[in-house]
Amino acid sequence: METYAMNQANLADNCRKKGLYKEQIEVWRESCLNANGRESSQTKQLNQELKEFF
Question: What is the tally of structural domains in the chain?
């Protein structure tokens, strides 16, 4: 939610400060928007990566 209204420059700066990638924000945003629907392939991939990491 914090990044939703940011322009590209502010988003990039925010990501650098927090050690995130813009692509991660986009996947999280898509996941939130589709929370009650079906999972996207990116969401499935992120979930698999998180399971492997932990």
Answer: 1
